[in-house]
Design a protein that fits this description.
This protein is of the alpha+beta class and 633 residues long. It folds into four domains: 198 residues, 2-Layer Sandwich (Nucleotidyltransferase, domain 5), CATH 3.30.420; 79 residues, ATPase, substrate binding domain, subdomain 4 (Actin, Chain A, domain 4, Alpha-Beta Complex), CATH 3.90.640; 121 residues, Substrate Binding Domain Of DNAk, Chain A, domain 1; 92 residues, Up-down Bundle (Substrate Binding Domain Of Dnak, Chain:A, Domain 2), CATH 1.20.1270. The protein is 35% helix and 25% strand. Strands 1, 2, 3, 4, 11 and 12 form a six-stranded mixed sheet that branches. Strand 24 and strand 25 form a beta hairpin. Helix 12 packs antiparallel against helix 13. Bound molecules: adenosine-5'-diphosphate (ADP) and magnesium ion. Magnesium ion (MG) binds next to loops. Magnesium ion binds next to loops.
């Protein structure tokens, strides 16, 4: 295989967002976000002006908006290509001044500058361009840039102008929902499909219904048709922050944020909103968050906010998004939706996911980070335009096996290499420790037998399993690779009905060369890997046997002969020796001797089990290796 040619004149993908912007690039390993010098994936769409010039862009500018609200431009995208008059109803959301510019266009006055929104966007694009040049190590002059599906010609032209000002040729302007679909590889098979893209960002909400048009082999990405859009350009995560901040103020017995003569300074208000935002984000992860904020002037807010409380506040806003979805569905003529894709940071809110899932009756796609999916899709489109299509991985089969880690670090493969897509597999697992309430699932890809030698795809947890002895919970793990190559992993405990799921796109980050290398390595290591896997599983299962036999022995000991007890105990000691050796140095274990020792103990213990009164013990003939977990309550 020749060395990959150094990149020259690359086309990058850019998501120029209202609150955040990102740049991505797609090569043979698939699309990836290009991180800034300081390792950030998202650039805050914020620019601060002083003395008429842009002096800060990104997080610092956004951060300084607290101190310099009049000098900092946030959400300039809302004004792109719009006239002063038509954007009037939005002016109150800006802290900077909106003025009427040339040809009656909305312009911005901030920090001594008088600029058009595209000039602000150009500062942001310029920053992304520098990031791309840093990461790709070459000059970047071309980009695919995304815009909302509802942008009109004027808004699209303003976006092109912004690119030009930043020294970028916008080789194509792509709709954000189309980019999201491309990121998921939808349309690669040219099968007719109808997709809903639900995009809930910082300041805007929109839903688009796209149709994949079959029989288009041009590969130029024009295979999507927007059949309906609906939304609200003044509905987003910011509203949730605002609602939460208002609630906190009300609780503190203070006037509302928007009141003209509020007791709070502009910076205290901004600080409160920032605080509300981080609380909101924390509540997407946790059930409650602690608030402790000093607003100055002796004003303090100190309390706990629960997720349930936040959900009550969020519900009216989420309701509005649902109504918009219903409208879009109606406009689309009541078509059946095959898939739903979630886009935008606000779709991380669990209640949003639930409500959207319920509305469409589908498990929405969440495999790709909702913040990144549009940029990744823009990069995918860029790769197509560049002629660097990733046909190689658009296979009808799974290129590498998929499985989960089990106790001891071995891999249980559920779907093996070359299985035809779509593919589904289920297997039962159990716990390895008594009263284990959490099970950690680690999803892996590769041909080797031990987790450490495979590629880690995802980790997730199944929680709140009711206390049961080791080996009793029945944990069903299902792997489903759908037609678009998205892997859905579901783990469910049968008795309690607890479930947890995760989605990933296993082909991301893989090249054909890498697949070949992985295959080759698995052949080289086949023997020692198999040995290791067998020894690890034997050790785990032997330890469980010893535990059960020990438990049963203590219950029935008085009914058993001393010789019998002694013989069992000596078999246990013998088996324990193998377990210790397996843990210390698995390669030195004679696996057959180990298996024999286990079998001998199992056989010898039958007589005792027959004595045992415990039903539950007899109910388990043989268990699968427990899923890797060390957590107990
Ligand atoms: P845009 O496309 O408008 O630039 P984004 O997609 O970047 O917007 O979304 C930004 C919004 O997502 C912000 O309101 C932010 O607070 C919100 N957000 C980000 N992460 C989370 C999270 N984990 N939970 C809830 N909201 C989040
Ligand atoms: Mg967005």
């Amino acid at each position: 295989m020749p060395e990959p040619a150094p990149i020259s004149d690359p086309i990058v993908g850019i998501d120029l967002g209202t609150t955040h912007s990102l740049v991505a690039f797609c090569d043979a390993a698939g699309p990836r976000i290009l991180e800034s010098e300081s390792g950030e994936r998202m650039l805050a769409s914020a620019v601060r002006y002083r003395g008429g010039v842009a002096i800060e862009v990104g997080a610092e500018a956004r951060h300084h908006a607290v101190e310099f609200p009049l000098d900092t431009v946030l959400s300039a995208k809302r004004l792109m290509g719009r006239s002063f008059d038509e954007s009037k109803e939005a002016h109150h959301v800006f802290q900077f001044e909106v003025v009427s510019g040339t040809r009656g266009l909305a312009a911005i006055a901030a920090g001594g500058a008088r600029v058009l929104p595209q000039e602000v966007a150009a500062v942001i694009l310029g920053q992304l361009r520098r990031t791309a040049e840093l990461r790709l190590g070459c000059e970047v002059r071309r980009a695919v840039i995304t815009v909302p599906a509802y942008f009109d010609d004027g808004q699209r032209q303003a976006t092109r102008d912004a690119a030009r000002l930043a020294g970028l040729d916008a080789v194509r302007i792509v709709n954000e929902p189309t980019a999201a679909a491309l990121a998921y590889g939808i349309g690669r098979r040219g099968e007719p499909e109808t997709i809903a893209i639900y995009d809930f960002g910082g300041g805007t909400f929109d839903v688009s219904i796209l149709q994949v048009i079959p029989d288009n082999n041009s590969g130029d990405g024009d295979l999507f048709r927007v059949i309906a859009t609906a939304g609200d350009t003044h509905l987003g995560g910011d509203d949730l922050d605002h609602a939460l901040a208002e609630q906190l103020l009300a609780d503190a017995g203070l006037a509302s944020l928007s009141q003209e003569n509020a007791t709070l300074s502009a910076s205290a208000r901004q600080a409160l909103r920032d605080f509300a935002e981080s609380t909101k984000i924390a509540l997407s992860q946790r059930e409650s968050a602690q608030i402790d904020i000093d607003l100055g002037g002796g004003l303090q807010v100190r309390r706990t906010v629960t997720r349930a409380e936040f959900e009550i506040l969020a519900t009216p806003f989420i309701d509005r998004t649902i109504v918009a979805c219903q409208r879009a569905l109606q406009d689309a003529g009541g078509v059946a939706i095959d898939r739903v894709i979630l886009v935008g940071g606000s779709t991380r809110i669990p209640l949003v996911r639930r409500r959207v899932g319920e509305l469409f009756g589908l498990d929405p796609y969440t495999a790709l980070d909702p913040d990144c999916v549009v940029a990744l899709g823009a990069a995918t489109q860029a790769a197509v335009l560049q002629g660097a299509r990733r046909d190689v991985l658009l296979l009808d089969v799974i290129p590498l096996s998929l499985g989960i880690e089990t106790v001891g670090g071995a891999v249980a493969k559920l779907l093996t290499r070359n299985a035809t897509i779509p593919a589904r597999a289920r297997e039962m697992f159990s716990t390895s420790v008594d009263n284990q309430s959490h099970v950690r699932l680690h999803v892996l890809q590769g041909e080797r037998e031990m987790a450490g030698d495979c590629r880690s795809l995802a980790r997730f947890e199944l929680r709140d399993i009711p206390p049961m002895p080791a080996g009793i919970p029945q944990i069903e793990v299902e792997f489903l690779v759908d037609a678009n190559g998205v892997l859905h992993v579901t783990a469910g405990e049968r008795r309690s009905g607890r479930r947890a799921t995760v989605q990933v796109v296993p082909s991301f980050g893989l090249t054909t060369e890498e697949i070949d290398r992985i295959e080759h390595e698995s052949v080289v290591h086949a023997r020692s890997d198999m040995h290791r896997h067998r020894v690890v599983d034997l050790a785990v299962n032997s330890a469980l046997d010893i535990k059960w036999i020990g438990d049963a022995l203590s219950r029935t000991r008085t009914d058993l002969s001393a010789e019998y007890v002694e013989s069992l105990e000596s078999l246990i000691t013998h088996l324990k020796g193998f377990i210790s050796l397996a843990q210390a140095s698995p390669h030195d274990v004679d696996a057959n001797a180990f298996a024999n020792a286990k079998e001998e103990l199992d056989r010898a213990s039958v007589a005792m089990h027959e004595m045992s009164i415990s039903k539950s013990l007899r109910a388990i003939p043989n268990i699968n290796p427990g899923i890797n977990s060390t957590r107990t309550t």
